[in-house]
Amino acid sequence: MGYLSRKPRSPAAQDVADLVPEAAKMSGGLAGLLSQGSNWGMGPDPEYPASTFLNHVYQGFDKNELVYACIEEKSTSIAEAPVRVYDAAQRSRDPIDTHPLRQLIANPNPLMTEFEMYEMLQLHLDLAGNAFWEIVTDRAGRPVELWPLRPDLVRMKRSRSSLSYGYFVDGAVYPVDVLHFRLPSPVDPLVGTPPMRAALRATALDNEATDFVKALLQNHAIPGVVITMADLEHALDEATTNRLKTKWKQSYGGKRRGEPAFLQAGMDVKALGLNLKDLEFPDLRTISESRICMSFGVPPILVGAKIGLDRSTFANYAEARKSFWEETLMPLQKRVASAINARLLPMFGSGSGVRRVVARHDNSEVLALREDELARWTRATEAFRAGGLTLNDYRREVGKEPVAGGDVFFVPSGIIATRDAAGNMQQVVEPAARPAPAPGATEEP
Description:
single chain; 3 domains; 12 helices; 13% strand
Protein backbone atom coordinates (compact mmCIF):
# COMPACT_ATOMS: atom_id res chain seq x y z
CA MET A 1 0.00 0.00 0.00
CA GLY A 2 1.43 3.38 -0.98
CA TYR A 3 1.55 6.76 0.69
CA LEU A 4 -1.28 8.30 -1.35
CA SER A 5 -3.72 5.41 -1.64
CA ARG A 6 -3.15 3.74 1.69
CA LYS A 7 -6.31 3.44 3.85
CA PRO A 8 -5.70 4.08 7.56
CA ARG A 9 -6.21 1.17 9.92
CA SER A 10 -9.25 2.63 11.65
CA PRO A 11 -13.02 2.05 12.04
CA ALA A 12 -15.41 2.26 9.10
CA ALA A 13 -15.86 5.56 7.35
CA GLN A 14 -19.56 5.90 8.14
CA ASP A 15 -18.74 5.95 11.87
CA VAL A 16 -16.80 9.19 11.52
CA ALA A 17 -18.91 11.21 9.10
CA ASP A 18 -18.98 14.06 11.61
CA LEU A 19 -15.26 14.56 11.06
CA VAL A 20 -16.05 16.25 7.75
CA PRO A 21 -17.91 19.55 8.10
CA GLU A 22 -19.85 20.58 5.01
CA ALA A 23 -17.44 23.43 4.27
CA ALA A 24 -14.51 21.04 4.28
CA LYS A 25 -16.34 18.69 1.90
CA MET A 26 -16.70 21.53 -0.54
CA SER A 27 -13.15 22.82 -0.26
CA GLY A 28 -11.42 19.45 -0.16
CA GLY A 29 -8.95 20.75 2.40
CA LEU A 30 -8.09 20.77 6.09
CA ALA A 31 -11.21 21.70 8.02
CA GLY A 32 -10.82 25.08 9.67
CA LEU A 33 -7.99 26.06 7.29
CA LEU A 34 -8.75 25.56 3.61
CA SER A 35 -12.49 25.72 4.22
CA GLN A 36 -12.14 29.45 4.88
CA GLY A 37 -11.10 30.17 1.31
CA SER A 38 -7.81 30.58 -0.43
CA ASN A 39 -7.06 33.90 1.30
CA TRP A 40 -8.47 33.41 4.80
CA GLY A 41 -12.01 34.46 3.98
CA MET A 42 -11.02 37.54 1.97
CA GLY A 43 -11.86 35.98 -1.39
CA PRO A 44 -9.46 34.87 -4.10
CA ASP A 45 -7.27 37.39 -5.92
CA PRO A 46 -8.05 37.04 -9.66
CA GLU A 47 -4.57 38.33 -10.55
CA TYR A 48 -2.73 35.50 -8.82
CA PRO A 49 -3.20 31.73 -8.36
CA ALA A 50 -5.38 30.68 -5.44
CA SER A 51 -3.41 29.77 -2.32
CA THR A 52 -4.14 26.06 -2.00
CA PHE A 53 -1.84 23.12 -1.41
CA LEU A 54 -2.13 21.80 -4.96
CA ASN A 55 -1.61 25.26 -6.46
CA HIS A 56 1.48 25.64 -4.31
CA VAL A 57 2.74 22.35 -5.72
CA TYR A 58 1.83 23.02 -9.37
CA GLN A 59 2.71 26.73 -9.55
CA GLY A 60 5.69 26.62 -7.22
CA PHE A 61 7.44 23.33 -6.56
CA ASP A 62 6.70 21.80 -9.97
CA LYS A 63 7.07 24.94 -12.09
CA ASN A 64 9.48 27.40 -10.51
CA GLU A 65 13.14 26.45 -10.31
CA LEU A 66 13.92 28.74 -7.37
CA VAL A 67 10.99 27.51 -5.27
CA TYR A 68 12.03 23.93 -5.96
CA ALA A 69 15.65 24.69 -5.03
CA CYS A 70 14.69 26.45 -1.77
CA ILE A 71 12.40 23.65 -0.60
CA GLU A 72 14.90 20.95 -1.59
CA GLU A 73 17.68 22.80 0.22
CA LYS A 74 15.62 22.82 3.40
CA SER A 75 14.28 19.27 3.13
CA THR A 76 17.65 17.64 2.40
CA SER A 77 19.45 19.74 5.00
CA ILE A 78 17.08 19.08 7.89
CA ALA A 79 17.31 15.36 7.12
CA GLU A 80 21.05 15.53 7.91
CA ALA A 81 20.28 15.79 11.62
CA PRO A 82 18.16 12.84 12.84
CA VAL A 83 16.04 12.90 15.98
CA ARG A 84 17.69 10.86 18.75
CA VAL A 85 16.74 10.01 22.31
CA TYR A 86 18.82 11.26 25.27
CA ASP A 87 18.76 10.99 29.04
CA ALA A 88 16.63 13.89 30.27
CA ALA A 89 18.76 14.22 33.43
CA GLN A 90 21.91 14.53 31.28
CA ARG A 91 23.69 11.77 33.16
CA SER A 92 25.18 10.83 29.81
CA ARG A 93 25.66 12.80 26.63
CA ASP A 94 25.49 9.70 24.47
CA PRO A 95 22.22 8.97 22.62
CA ILE A 96 20.12 5.98 23.64
CA ASP A 97 19.97 4.14 20.32
CA THR A 98 18.13 1.17 21.85
CA HIS A 99 15.09 3.23 22.84
CA PRO A 100 11.96 2.11 20.90
CA LEU A 101 11.22 5.69 19.78
CA ARG A 102 14.62 5.95 18.13
CA GLN A 103 14.19 2.54 16.51
CA LEU A 104 10.76 3.53 15.18
CA ILE A 105 12.03 6.78 13.65
CA ALA A 106 15.01 4.94 12.14
CA ASN A 107 12.59 2.51 10.41
CA PRO A 108 9.26 4.35 10.16
CA ASN A 109 7.47 1.97 7.77
CA PRO A 110 8.26 -0.78 5.25
CA LEU A 111 8.30 1.58 2.24
CA MET A 112 10.18 4.66 3.44
CA THR A 113 13.48 5.49 5.09
CA GLU A 114 14.07 7.94 7.90
CA PHE A 115 15.65 10.41 5.45
CA GLU A 116 12.61 10.26 3.17
CA MET A 117 10.24 10.86 6.09
CA TYR A 118 12.09 14.04 7.05
CA GLU A 119 12.15 15.20 3.43
CA MET A 120 8.40 14.71 3.10
CA LEU A 121 7.83 16.45 6.43
CA GLN A 122 9.66 19.58 5.26
CA LEU A 123 7.97 19.55 1.84
CA HIS A 124 4.54 19.53 3.46
CA LEU A 125 5.46 22.27 5.95
CA ASP A 126 6.73 24.56 3.20
CA LEU A 127 3.82 23.93 0.82
CA ALA A 128 0.91 23.46 3.25
CA GLY A 129 2.09 24.80 6.62
CA ASN A 130 0.97 21.48 8.13
CA ALA A 131 2.46 17.99 8.10
CA PHE A 132 0.91 14.81 9.46
CA TRP A 133 2.37 11.45 10.42
CA GLU A 134 -0.18 8.69 10.93
CA ILE A 135 0.68 6.66 14.03
CA VAL A 136 -0.06 2.95 13.58
CA THR A 137 -0.09 1.08 16.90
CA ASP A 138 -0.06 -2.55 17.96
CA ARG A 139 -2.63 -4.16 20.25
CA ALA A 140 -0.85 -2.79 23.29
CA GLY A 141 -1.15 0.74 21.95
CA ARG A 142 2.56 1.16 21.21
CA PRO A 143 3.53 2.85 17.92
CA VAL A 144 4.95 0.44 15.36
CA GLU A 145 4.73 2.44 12.09
CA LEU A 146 4.70 6.07 10.94
CA TRP A 147 3.16 7.14 7.60
CA PRO A 148 3.10 10.63 6.06
CA LEU A 149 -0.35 11.86 5.04
CA ARG A 150 -1.17 14.35 2.32
CA PRO A 151 -2.12 17.50 4.22
CA ASP A 152 -4.93 18.54 1.87
CA LEU A 153 -6.69 15.21 2.48
CA VAL A 154 -6.65 15.50 6.28
CA ARG A 155 -9.84 16.57 8.06
CA MET A 156 -9.82 18.03 11.55
CA LYS A 157 -12.63 18.38 14.08
CA ARG A 158 -12.25 20.43 17.24
CA SER A 159 -13.81 20.10 20.63
CA ARG A 160 -13.22 22.03 23.83
CA SER A 161 -10.11 20.09 24.83
CA SER A 162 -9.18 17.81 21.94
CA LEU A 163 -8.73 17.47 18.21
CA SER A 164 -9.94 14.59 16.04
CA TYR A 165 -8.46 13.80 12.66
CA GLY A 166 -9.74 11.97 9.61
CA TYR A 167 -8.19 11.06 6.26
CA PHE A 168 -10.13 11.38 3.01
CA VAL A 169 -9.55 8.34 0.75
CA ASP A 170 -11.73 7.01 -2.09
CA GLY A 171 -14.67 9.24 -1.23
CA ALA A 172 -14.75 8.30 2.47
CA VAL A 173 -13.14 9.68 5.62
CA TYR A 174 -11.34 7.35 8.02
CA PRO A 175 -10.37 8.40 11.55
CA VAL A 176 -6.64 8.45 12.11
CA ASP A 177 -4.27 8.90 15.03
CA VAL A 178 -1.76 11.49 13.84
CA LEU A 179 1.25 13.48 14.92
CA HIS A 180 0.55 17.02 13.71
CA PHE A 181 3.41 19.38 12.87
CA ARG A 182 2.50 22.97 12.02
CA LEU A 183 4.09 26.34 11.36
CA PRO A 184 2.79 29.43 13.16
CA SER A 185 -0.32 31.18 11.88
CA PRO A 186 -1.58 34.65 12.88
CA VAL A 187 -5.18 33.55 12.30
CA ASP A 188 -5.46 30.12 13.92
CA PRO A 189 -2.97 28.61 16.41
CA LEU A 190 -4.05 25.05 15.57
CA VAL A 191 -3.14 25.17 11.87
CA GLY A 192 -0.14 26.46 9.99
CA THR A 193 0.62 29.03 7.30
CA PRO A 194 3.12 27.84 4.66
CA PRO A 195 6.03 29.97 3.43
CA MET A 196 4.78 29.26 -0.09
CA ARG A 197 1.72 31.41 0.58
CA ALA A 198 3.91 34.44 1.24
CA ALA A 199 6.07 33.65 -1.79
CA LEU A 200 3.13 33.00 -4.14
CA ARG A 201 2.95 36.47 -5.72
CA ALA A 202 6.71 36.70 -6.32
CA THR A 203 6.59 33.17 -7.72
CA ALA A 204 3.73 34.04 -10.08
CA LEU A 205 5.65 37.13 -11.23
CA ASP A 206 8.77 35.09 -11.91
CA ASN A 207 6.73 32.46 -13.78
CA GLU A 208 5.11 35.14 -15.94
CA ALA A 209 8.50 36.62 -16.82
CA THR A 210 9.77 33.18 -17.82
CA ASP A 211 6.67 32.49 -19.91
CA PHE A 212 6.98 35.89 -21.59
CA VAL A 213 10.59 35.26 -22.56
CA LYS A 214 9.68 31.82 -23.87
CA ALA A 215 6.91 33.29 -26.02
CA LEU A 216 9.29 35.87 -27.46
CA LEU A 217 11.92 33.26 -28.20
CA GLN A 218 9.27 31.26 -30.02
CA ASN A 219 8.73 34.38 -32.18
CA HIS A 220 5.19 35.08 -30.95
CA ALA A 221 4.14 36.00 -34.52
CA ILE A 222 6.53 38.99 -34.50
CA PRO A 223 9.11 39.11 -37.31
CA GLY A 224 12.70 39.63 -36.31
CA VAL A 225 13.34 42.25 -38.99
CA VAL A 226 11.27 44.29 -41.43
CA ILE A 227 12.73 45.37 -44.79
CA THR A 228 11.17 48.47 -46.33
CA MET A 229 11.77 49.81 -49.86
CA ALA A 230 10.43 53.34 -50.00
CA ASP A 231 11.66 54.25 -53.51
CA LEU A 232 9.91 51.49 -55.46
CA GLU A 233 7.46 52.73 -58.05
CA HIS A 234 5.30 49.63 -57.94
CA ALA A 235 4.42 47.28 -55.06
CA LEU A 236 6.17 43.93 -55.07
CA ASP A 237 4.04 40.97 -56.00
CA GLU A 238 3.85 37.89 -53.77
CA ALA A 239 6.23 35.82 -55.88
CA THR A 240 8.95 38.46 -55.73
CA THR A 241 8.44 38.94 -51.99
CA ASN A 242 8.76 35.20 -51.32
CA ARG A 243 11.88 35.00 -53.50
CA LEU A 244 13.57 37.85 -51.63
CA LYS A 245 12.55 36.36 -48.26
CA THR A 246 14.04 32.97 -49.19
CA LYS A 247 17.24 34.58 -50.41
CA TRP A 248 17.56 36.63 -47.20
CA LYS A 249 17.12 33.54 -44.96
CA GLN A 250 19.65 31.57 -47.02
CA SER A 251 22.19 34.36 -46.82
CA TYR A 252 21.80 35.39 -43.19
CA GLY A 253 20.02 32.53 -41.39
CA GLY A 254 21.19 29.36 -39.67
CA LYS A 255 24.99 29.08 -39.40
CA ARG A 256 25.40 32.23 -41.50
CA ARG A 257 23.86 34.49 -38.87
CA GLY A 258 25.95 37.59 -38.42
CA GLU A 259 27.08 37.76 -42.06
CA PRO A 260 27.24 41.32 -43.45
CA ALA A 261 24.25 42.35 -45.55
CA PHE A 262 24.47 44.54 -48.67
CA LEU A 263 21.26 46.33 -49.58
CA GLN A 264 20.18 48.15 -52.67
CA ALA A 265 19.46 51.83 -52.61
CA GLY A 266 16.13 52.59 -50.99
CA MET A 267 16.09 49.44 -48.81
CA ASP A 268 15.94 49.85 -45.02
CA VAL A 269 16.11 47.11 -42.34
CA LYS A 270 14.45 47.61 -38.94
CA ALA A 271 14.74 45.11 -36.07
CA LEU A 272 11.47 44.34 -34.29
CA GLY A 273 12.50 41.48 -32.00
CA LEU A 274 14.34 41.90 -28.67
CA ASN A 275 17.94 40.82 -28.21
CA LEU A 276 19.02 38.59 -25.32
CA LYS A 277 20.15 41.57 -23.25
CA ASP A 278 16.65 43.02 -23.45
CA LEU A 279 15.16 39.69 -22.34
CA GLU A 280 17.06 39.49 -19.05
CA PHE A 281 14.70 41.66 -16.92
CA PRO A 282 17.55 42.04 -14.39
CA ASP A 283 15.72 44.22 -11.87
CA LEU A 284 12.50 42.21 -12.05
CA ARG A 285 14.34 38.90 -11.65
CA THR A 286 16.37 40.21 -8.72
CA ILE A 287 13.28 41.36 -6.83
CA SER A 288 11.48 38.05 -7.37
CA GLU A 289 14.51 35.97 -6.39
CA SER A 290 15.18 37.88 -3.18
CA ARG A 291 11.53 37.73 -2.07
CA ILE A 292 11.17 34.02 -2.78
CA CYS A 293 14.38 33.17 -0.90
CA MET A 294 13.38 35.50 1.94
CA SER A 295 10.01 33.77 2.34
CA PHE A 296 11.63 30.34 2.69
CA GLY A 297 14.50 31.57 4.85
CA VAL A 298 17.17 30.35 2.43
CA PRO A 299 20.21 32.55 1.60
CA PRO A 300 20.20 33.12 -2.19
CA ILE A 301 23.82 32.03 -2.53
CA LEU A 302 22.95 28.48 -1.40
CA VAL A 303 20.46 27.87 -4.22
CA GLY A 304 22.35 29.52 -7.06
CA ALA A 305 20.14 32.60 -7.30
CA LYS A 306 21.76 35.39 -9.32
CA ILE A 307 21.36 37.92 -6.52
CA GLY A 308 23.47 35.64 -4.32
CA LEU A 309 26.03 34.60 -6.91
CA ASP A 310 26.84 38.23 -7.75
CA ARG A 311 28.42 38.59 -4.32
CA SER A 312 29.54 35.04 -3.65
CA THR A 313 32.90 33.99 -2.26
CA PHE A 314 34.03 30.85 -0.49
CA ALA A 315 34.06 32.74 2.81
CA ASN A 316 30.54 34.14 2.67
CA TYR A 317 29.21 30.84 1.30
CA ALA A 318 30.38 29.10 4.48
CA GLU A 319 28.88 31.89 6.58
CA ALA A 320 25.61 31.60 4.67
CA ARG A 321 25.47 27.85 5.37
CA LYS A 322 25.97 28.44 9.07
CA SER A 323 23.45 31.29 9.15
CA PHE A 324 20.92 29.12 7.30
CA TRP A 325 21.21 26.45 9.99
CA GLU A 326 21.12 28.81 12.95
CA GLU A 327 18.30 31.08 11.78
CA THR A 328 16.08 28.77 9.70
CA LEU A 329 16.64 25.09 10.45
CA MET A 330 17.31 25.12 14.19
CA PRO A 331 13.95 26.76 15.02
CA LEU A 332 12.31 24.15 12.76
CA GLN A 333 14.15 21.41 14.64
CA LYS A 334 12.81 22.66 17.96
CA ARG A 335 9.29 22.71 16.53
CA VAL A 336 9.59 19.11 15.28
CA ALA A 337 11.23 17.81 18.47
CA SER A 338 8.60 19.52 20.65
CA ALA A 339 5.79 17.79 18.74
CA ILE A 340 7.50 14.40 19.07
CA ASN A 341 8.12 14.87 22.80
CA ALA A 342 4.57 16.02 23.46
CA ARG A 343 2.67 13.49 21.32
CA LEU A 344 4.76 10.48 20.31
CA LEU A 345 7.21 9.90 23.16
CA PRO A 346 4.53 9.42 25.90
CA MET A 347 3.04 6.54 23.89
CA PHE A 348 6.06 4.42 24.83
CA GLY A 349 5.22 4.57 28.54
CA SER A 350 6.18 6.91 31.36
CA GLY A 351 5.77 4.84 34.52
CA SER A 352 7.86 5.18 37.66
CA GLY A 353 10.27 2.50 36.50
CA VAL A 354 10.84 4.12 33.10
CA ARG A 355 13.92 6.22 32.62
CA ARG A 356 13.07 9.83 31.74
CA VAL A 357 14.24 10.63 28.25
CA VAL A 358 13.90 13.45 25.78
CA ALA A 359 14.05 13.55 21.97
CA ARG A 360 16.09 16.16 20.15
CA HIS A 361 17.98 16.54 16.90
CA ASP A 362 21.59 15.41 16.68
CA ASN A 363 23.57 18.09 14.84
CA SER A 364 26.97 16.52 15.43
CA GLU A 365 27.29 15.33 11.81
CA VAL A 366 26.10 18.57 10.18
CA LEU A 367 29.12 19.80 8.25
CA ALA A 368 28.03 23.45 8.31
CA LEU A 369 28.08 23.46 12.13
CA ARG A 370 31.25 21.48 12.71
CA GLU A 371 34.47 23.20 13.60
CA ASP A 372 37.45 22.52 11.43
CA GLU A 373 39.94 20.06 12.90
CA LEU A 374 42.52 22.67 13.90
CA ALA A 375 39.99 24.86 15.74
CA ARG A 376 38.54 21.84 17.57
CA TRP A 377 41.94 20.56 18.70
CA THR A 378 43.03 24.06 19.79
CA ARG A 379 39.89 24.66 21.84
CA ALA A 380 40.03 21.25 23.53
CA THR A 381 43.77 21.51 24.26
CA GLU A 382 43.41 24.93 25.90
CA ALA A 383 40.54 23.69 28.10
CA PHE A 384 42.51 20.58 29.06
CA ARG A 385 45.62 22.56 29.95
CA ALA A 386 43.55 24.91 32.10
CA GLY A 387 42.15 21.98 34.07
CA GLY A 388 38.61 22.36 32.77
CA LEU A 389 38.42 18.91 31.13
CA THR A 390 39.32 15.44 32.27
CA LEU A 391 41.64 13.38 30.11
CA ASN A 392 38.69 11.39 28.74
CA ASP A 393 36.68 14.58 28.12
CA TYR A 394 39.60 15.85 26.09
CA ARG A 395 39.86 12.62 24.13
CA ARG A 396 36.15 12.67 23.32
CA GLU A 397 36.37 16.27 22.09
CA VAL A 398 39.13 15.39 19.62
CA GLY A 399 37.44 12.19 18.48
CA LYS A 400 39.46 9.64 20.44
CA GLU A 401 38.21 6.73 22.55
CA PRO A 402 38.29 7.12 26.36
CA VAL A 403 40.99 5.24 28.27
CA ALA A 404 40.91 3.46 31.63
CA GLY A 405 41.65 5.82 34.50
CA GLY A 406 41.17 8.86 32.30
CA ASP A 407 38.30 10.44 34.24
CA VAL A 408 40.67 12.69 36.21
CA PHE A 409 41.58 16.36 36.03
CA PHE A 410 45.13 17.52 35.47
CA VAL A 411 45.81 20.78 37.33
CA PRO A 412 48.57 22.93 35.83
CA SER A 413 51.64 23.07 38.06
CA GLY A 414 51.76 26.86 38.05
CA ILE A 415 48.21 27.22 39.44
CA ILE A 416 47.85 26.65 43.23
CA ALA A 417 44.66 27.31 45.19
CA THR A 418 45.51 28.98 48.53
CA ARG A 419 42.18 30.31 49.79
CA ASP A 420 38.54 29.59 48.97
CA ALA A 421 35.81 32.16 48.41
CA ALA A 422 35.34 32.56 52.20
CA GLY A 423 39.05 33.29 52.71
CA ASN A 424 39.88 29.97 54.39
CA MET A 425 43.24 28.38 53.74
CA GLN A 426 43.11 25.43 51.34
CA GLN A 427 45.57 22.58 51.09
CA VAL A 428 45.53 21.35 47.50
CA VAL A 429 47.79 18.31 47.89
CA GLU A 430 47.88 16.01 50.90
CA PRO A 431 51.41 15.67 52.37
CA ALA A 432 53.13 12.49 51.31
CA ALA A 433 53.33 9.83 53.98
CA ARG A 434 56.86 9.38 55.38
CA PRO A 435 58.39 5.93 55.14
CA ALA A 436 58.72 4.03 58.41
CA PRO A 437 62.22 4.29 59.98
CA ALA A 438 64.53 1.33 59.67
CA PRO A 439 64.96 -0.91 62.73
CA GLY A 440 67.34 0.72 65.19
CA ALA A 441 67.31 4.06 63.40
CA THR A 442 66.16 7.24 65.09
CA GLU A 443 63.60 9.46 63.36
CA GLU A 444 64.79 12.95 62.53
CA PRO A 445 62.67 15.77 63.81
